[in-house]
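User: quick one
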Amino acid sequence: MQDGNALAARPDVGLDEDKTSGSREKGLNRVLQILEFLHTTQRAIGVGDLAKGVNAPRSTTYTLVRSLVDAGLLEMAGDGNRVYFGKKLYLYGMDYVRGNDLLRRGRQEVDHLSRETGETSELCMLQGGRYTIVHSSPGTRPFRISSATGLQIPLPWTASGRLLLAGFDRAAIEDMVSEDDLVLPDGRRLRLDDFIADIAVAKSAGYCVTSGLVDAYTKCLAAPVFSAPGRVEATMCLVVPIDTSSEKTDDLIALLRERAARLSIAA
Amino acid sequence: MQDGNALAARPDVGLDEDKTSGSREKGLNRVLQILEFLHTTQRAIGVGDLAKGVNAPRSTTYTLVRSLVDAGLLEMAGDGNRVYFGKKLYLYGMDYVRGNDLLRRGRQEVDHLSRETGETSELCMLQGGRYTIVHSSPGTRPFRISSATGLQIPLPWTASGRLLLAGFDRAAIEDMVSEDDLVLPDGRRLRLDDFIADIAVAKSAGYCVTSGLVDAYTKCLAAPVFSAPGRVEATMCLVVPIDTSSEKTDDLIALLRERAARLSIAA
DNA sequence: TGTAATTGTCTCTTACAAGAGACGCCTGTA
DNA sequence: TACAGGCGTCTCTTGTAAGAGACAATTACA
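Assistant: Done. Structure below.
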């Protein structure tokens, strides 16, 4: 990538771009940070706190927030000095769904699958080099194994991650997976080579199962959805108790693969 | 000079120059225009055309689009040189839904109502001073009376518009309704006073029916959803053939009002 | 009551983003 | 083969938006 040796002339600025937004950040970037911040907090937040949260000057934040509220991308929340996402973003999101066959059909298929099996079902995609739950349907179990939609999880933690990376070469995979991503929630550390091997296995098998990776009580079954031959655009996955019998697991995998194939674009 | 009297001082508030975005426009504004433009076109568009569409310099547009694509707000469409809304906007939109009880329940209620009655049902809200179809469910009629979600229609054209403006005083209403808005699709011109009178009637009746306003073949039944006593936050509406019998219409209105009331926040 | 923190607004400066325009690369067509 | 047109990138200039900071007005304790 075009990383910045060209900019080496600049004395003090250089590598702090992803972390702390330094000084004199572009307004648009600030806005993008604001949106992302609201996405992670998942709730309305005061403008002052928002400024702290994205590490932006207060005055700038007020200006930007006003623009965004006027535009309808953000809305003032009930009590009056908090902001959260606005109707416009919802409308744009619906436009995205409408323009995206895969997502539209995938949502239906996921809803259907979870009703049919009673298990939590999800549609997952790559989003900016990260694994993202694009849609999920909770299933009927008493305890809800639920992850919020839009949640971003390190790729190595998931079965879907192994399928989604099937099309990429080693360099690209290394690029997407940070060191931290290889550390599982329970503290175990995955070796990158093992992960890449997993990807190859998943690719040729056409499905992937992981047990107790994200948490100790579930296993995750995933099957690829292709947008073109060999190109994994998304995965459908089922989250089931880790002690599910192997016969039942096999049945679910078969079902899952069939449904995922149905979603795939026939070449 | 940029002092108080905020209302009078601003000559043309929200609708600045929708036409020619002058020279040296702020990047964020350009972005907002881009999003709005994509929302109206409802399809992927080339960057060059996009620049023309929002009347922005090509080089600037390329820069902005790249930022937005990197951020995931936009995505390159299939053939590679077109852009449309991206996954991030969908995710943000889902966040909005999650944080918004009314919308979430309203969507369900609308879906349910259209299945129950077989008629097209919609949830409508004010959005930046305009009437907006926030969610719609098509109904089962052979010919589909359908308006796309997110469509913005002049307030005077609709039954919902009359209810949504119930809480506003004359000045506010005049502010929201332009001269053009008073001209119906068939060319007839509504008098502002008549419209305001309609609003008062709708307010006290607790529902509103319009016949043949948007098109000659349908009538629109609407009932208010309150977020607080007297505050109309949204409307539910049914779009039925204009020759629907008055008994059936009455039944549907009763049903609609009941469902809308159920959505309202109990004070 | 005082003191401290927060909130929303406003002013002024200057670092820098928006924009004009040129460039090379395609693709189509005459 | 030449020409027209669109696309994507790059450079350079200058108008202006981001930011520092001051301000009054709330709230929040103690």
